[in-house]
């Protein structure tokens, strides 16, 4: 459509960083103990976590965040 102005919305829908969401997820973990505390260093087996992903933006973002936090939180993700 030639008479309709277009705008590049890619900057508005692509966050520069996942840090704010990761902070929110970390706060939720601290407040609600979503995942068990990691075992002592001598027995540091990862906790298995099943992540259901529909392919929608919300579940893909959650998977992305959990993947970034999995090592620190000692999680073994199963998708």
Give the helix/strand layout.
Blueprint: H1 10-13, H2 19-32, E1 47-50, H3 57-73, E2 75-78
Parallel strand pairs: 1-2
Describe the structure using short key phrases:
mainly alpha, 2 strands, single chain, 79 residues, two-stranded parallel ribbon
Q: Would you kindly provide a written description of the structure presented here, covering whatever features stand out?
A:
By secondary structure, the protein is mainly alpha-helical. It has helices at 10-13, 19-32, 57-73; strands at 47-50, 75-78. It has a two-stranded parallel sheet. It starts with 9 loop residues before the first helix and ends with a strand.
Shape: globular
Tell me roughly what share of residues is in helical segments.
Answer: 40-55%
Q: List low-confidence stretches.
A: 4-15
What is the strand arrangement across the widest sheet? Answer: 1-2
Helix and strand pattern: HHEHE
CA-atom Rg in angstroms:
17 Å
Tell me the number of helical segments per DSSP (H or I, 4 or more residues long): 3
**Alpha-beta content class:** mainly alpha
Number of strands: 2
Mind describing the biggest β-sheet? 2 strands, parallel
Oligomer: single chain
N/C terminus separation:
42 Å
* Percent of residues in β-strands: 5-15%
Mean pLDDT: 77
